[in-house]
Queue: 3 jobs
Job 1
Amino acid sequence: MRGVDLKHNPWQSLRVDEFISGDLREPAVVARVIDRPFDEVYQLAADMGGAGYIFTGEHDADVMHNSAQINLNVAPRCVEMGVKKVFYSSSACIYPLYNHLDPDTPKTSEDSAYPAQPDSEYGWEKLFSEWLYLSFQRNYGLPVRIARFHNVFGPFGSWKDGREKAPAAICRKVAMAPDGGEVEVWGDGKQTRSFLYIEECLKAVRRFMDSDFSGPLNIGSEEMVTIDQLVNYVIEISGKTLRKRYVEGPVGVRGRSSDTTLIRQVLGWAPSLPLKDGLRKTYAWIEGEVKKLQERQHVAA
């Protein structure tokens, strides 16, 4: 098993036979990484982040160029080396903006992606790359599995570098807030989302790769909550008493939740871990990281 990324994960050692630190935007790096007919390639790399990164408009060109360049390098190299199967992680962000105006009734069935109107450049690139991999499957016989991830979260991911997503950001804010203080919430808190814990995601990916279905396929949860509810869960888990302060900020679409109809039919699978359980594990890890950070800052002072 070989892993590759721009850098090592700073919080977790990787259980791989070999790790290559490299930039997949460079064809020479892709050639070095995919140097044999691997049984499986998992293409998870992308220029990505949460709402604070994706929806400001400041990173649009990089998001589209960097992610597209990776896939334009990886797909033909997999064909060249005779890779037996490729997994590509797309995103719920490909779904049309017009299907997510009502926070209570978002539509994300796989067949609702067209007419296309993704909510961001990140979504447009993901949609392009879905077509790229499906085209390579049709024209060059490259077996692909395309999943549309819906807000995957958990420990050992970004939580304070500006690329963190809502669960990690809220866990950080709550962990750093003094008891009796307040936590900042972007928007009015009424926007809705569903979130999938990382271990659930991995189970679905493994089952998907073992299937004969190419996708696209939603991998997510139907446990839809408002951001207000998400914040309340984390505050409850923390044991603190905190007030919420609503501020302007990038929030994305008004509503989104994964439609699991197709994955239930095709794979006989649906997530079983309640959102609160995943949040407990995530909060415990982030709380620990916050304490380490505060201790370092205290020593430095």
Job 2
Amino acid sequence: MNLRLASGFSWLRSGLALAALGFAVRAVADETLLLVDDYEVLYRSGTKRILHPAERRPEAVIVQDRPWERTISYNSVHRDPVTGKYRLWYQSLLSADPESSGVAYAESDDGIVWRKPDLGIYRFDGRDTNFVLAPEAGHYGASVMIDSRETDPARRYKLVCFRAREENGRKVMGLAVGFSPDGLHWRMHPTFPLIKGSYGQRTEVPLQGDTTYAWGVPRSVSDVINVLFDEPRGLYVIYAKTWLDMPDGRTIWKRAIVRTESRDFLNWSVPELVIQPDEFDGTGVEYFPPAPGVNPTRRGIQLHGGPVFRHAGVYFSLLQKMDGEITGRMPSELAISRDGITWSRPFRSPDFIGLSPDPNHFDAGCLWTNETPVILDDEIRFYYGAYSGLWNGDLLRTPSGIGLAVLPLDRFAGVSPINGIGQITLRPRSLADCQGVTVNAAIQGELRVEVLDAQGYRLPGFTREDAVPLHGDSLRHAVAWKTKTLRDLPPGRYSLRLHLDRAEVFALTLH
């Protein structure tokens, strides 16, 4: 379904239901309140919050079937809101050398069946390929965005990646950016690295002013880079892998996530550490001497990457949670933030996007999440790259490919009673412009919504007894009362209270 039409049908379906209940439907943007955290909640009684993992499709939607696809991993996807067609850019390696990474391209009518067009931009062994950027240049970890705000047609498509160049006889790696008018023909900006990367050998932290030091500032960006436009701030933002220092203070120990921002895509701020592993990750094996032959950079649970997207006022990070020593596996964990800077990790288990239990499956080993979920009328699609290989084994073991995991719309986490009955009281707010409310909930018993004033008193006509009970499972239960509507409320601030009887609530939408 076309995304613009899908959004319209969603509004229309909710609007018809509200109109049938006597609400005047307004043509303004709805506001969805996600219950993935307690940001909108004043308090709740007798309830618990449970993560709902995305459901993986059983097979890869893009398979490793070209001779230039040694492995497939990092990717970005876009669905055109008018045509409904999909475009996807993915990293493809010619060899086991990470610097043989090129950016390949695929397209689809429905997001399920994909084509790899022969573009004639780059040839391999005498034949055309679907590469849009040559692998010899080492476009490592490329992230692509389509910038609808851009006034220069040649810069409408933007790309960030990690690249290397020679500087005074030394290899220097870091942030590179590129621009394209169509997503196929790219021009890399001649100045790079725009930020020198965090890379190299384990050493003491360099002294301030050390002119022999070739790398970036401590905790700079490294070789996993994801970009988005932060709408509330009007800034381009990169979330990238970095390296933390060891317990003894030396460099290159564990991977974590930094953030840098820019107004023009060229001048970026000094990276700032925002998400890191802690003592609650794993077994703590990394605090003890390693066994002989263990790679010291693969000890303990690490955050290999953290692509971020913003939806319904919430920043979500699809953390790549790496266990490089014990299991060798890297599933995805869901982290949340309300400002994109201060993060919480309330859902350490289960994995948000898990791994196949079949060791021969394409996504049995490591997942490479991205910052571009596709949000449809009734579901959210998460595309991800995957290896069957393990960090403590053959990381580049075949097969690899692009997978798809699906979540019902806004059902990241639900709040439900601990023992049958519970209630959720939202923070007081003005309901002057609110013509109606819908609730995203799975209800086995019933759910009723009442209205309290700002001091916590119930309001006649809006009590639990006055509420029309809701039943069943729906993304859009229309809330109503027997004799009144929200238009009958005098000016003021009010709390919505949800009474749950064997019901799980994921979100509310104010219309």
Job 3
Amino acid sequence: MGIGVSPDGTHIAFTPAMFSDVGFREIWVMGSQGDNPQKVLAVGENDWLEQVHWSPDGQRLAYLRVQRTAERYERSIETCDLKGASPTVVVSEMDVKVSDFWWLPNERIVYSRRESSASNDDNLWQIGVDGHSGTPTDRPKRITQWAGSTLGGVSATADGKRLALKRTDQYQVYLGELAEGGTRMNSPRRLTNDEASDFPSAWTADSKAVLFFSDRDGTGGIFKQRIDQDTAEPVSTPTQEVGGAVYSPDGAWILYLENQKQSHSRLMRVPVNGGVPQLVLETRNDARYECAPAPASLCVLSEESRDQKQLTLTAFDPVKGRGKLLRSIEKDPTASFAWGNGISPDGTTFALARSGEPEIHIRLLSLSNGSDREITVKGWPNLNGRSWARNGKGLYCGSYSAQSRTLLYVDLNGNARVLWRLKGFGGILGIPSPDGRYLAILGGDVINTNVWMVEGF
């Protein structure tokens, strides 16, 4: 797959493999007619690449590298020559997202940088770079002061005096009414309607309201909206950035993850009617947590080991904290798992599936000393979300391609039925209500793209 043409048009940088859900791991260069292909760079199993651009003189390549360490992710803009030698680090960031960049002809690199991990506040930054050696010549400087924007597709005019693309991207919550035992769905309607990003995570026990995470307050918080209303109400105003929230099985608590911006996070609980948040347990930043619905009482914490080679499933109590180890599973350190609800409604099985594979495979892991099994969903690639149907007879799965994303109902034999299909690339996930009548859907993102010509920087 081609990823960049040299400034003089004589060479092409490319990767021999298709992009996965986390990027690619090799950079090659060949002549413009496909001649003399040569590998330039390959990264290890815990690293991947997301962007590649040529230097203005065509003698070096700059690339965006993501390194997964034992504690967190590090994103850096680096360069090397066309033999992969003389590597340099131009910019390196922890806990914030460097997502796109462009190498200007006047010895500067301009890049987009997210100001916090829980907001859509991207801004343009620049740094001086020696065009011959690829080494930075000064410190990064901010160019823009924008809020609520996602910047992508950064490019510049030939003289490097004008750039870039400004893009605002918001995910919204949609509501679909299910039929035929949850295997079909009527055309969904939009539930949230704002200029923020909203991510559904749970339902109230009476199936009348959806709990969701939103960055509408600037840093991120937990909100609740009834399905017969147009506005949402805040549930909790944490002092730190937070992840999605779920209810405890007895409905007494709302659980959410509070990001400490280091190697760990705190799983917190707050009473459903409001009150002071309390600590449940401490865990890693990439941990996931969920609870089976009543009458089941199981809550499960999913944690990866520091070397990313093992996944553990641990029971926990919303009040007492950690419980017994349920399962320990060996894993590929390069693999990532789909989001959603993995615990079956009766609490006996955990559904685990890798995201980004060319065909969906869902492992059903027994939590009650039973047998494991695997479901193959033929013809559907790139799982990016899964949740159990309330009757336990199937799962709602999101599948994406370069052209569209599709919400599926998948029975336990792997047979898939299309519920909703959307054009465009992105995430899609359906969460069923306790009474099995509705799906709260992450999808239908609103994208407003405008070209902004920035000059005088």
